[in-house]
Design a protein that fits this description.
This protein is mostly helical and 208 residues long. The chain contains 10 helices and 3 strands. It starts with a helix and ends with a helix.
Amino acid sequence: VAKMFKTGFPADWELEVLPRDRSSWQGGGTFALSSQLNRGEATFEVARAAAQYMLRPSSEPLAFPPWVGRGWADLIALRTMHQLGYQNYAETKRAQFAEALKRSDPDLTGIDLSVSSLGHQASYVGKSIMVLQRLEKRHGRDLLARFRKTLKRYHSLGRIGSGLSTRDTIYYLSLTVHEDLYDYFQNIGTSVLPRKVNFHEDAGLKGR
């Protein structure tokens, strides 16, 4: 996971294995892993949690819309599974997301990524992964690492609070790839009010 972010793994992240049905954050940098998972499931959960944790621009918690906080984290987890030898598990999981998306949103305009309440649905995650993969194909496989650098730059200036909306996330993605992405997201059914992307200001900040 750290290789995909092109950074070292945070030293303050802790993992606890507890006798419970579900895995969850325990607060701070501690993630509780259910002892009832098989090895493949546990590996996926840890990889996804690590990706969610490392996506933050600082040690402070930052809430993302589910298409990033869940979708991108699941995409990183699936790739991690491949690297660790769990190819069958990863391909099965990926196929489940793709099939759910095909059934629910065949023309890729029906599921609104801005609706956070849909974030737990496989079809929503499937669309999130598809959208992010398309963006990576167009703008480079290192998009995630570059996006994190953009967030760190604006977080250090106090521009980012404790959470990002879909509108704000698209803004910082647009800065990262040097292209206004609001039309793209609107064309795939995302309800979002465009925000003027200040590429000139961002160029100046990078030069500091």
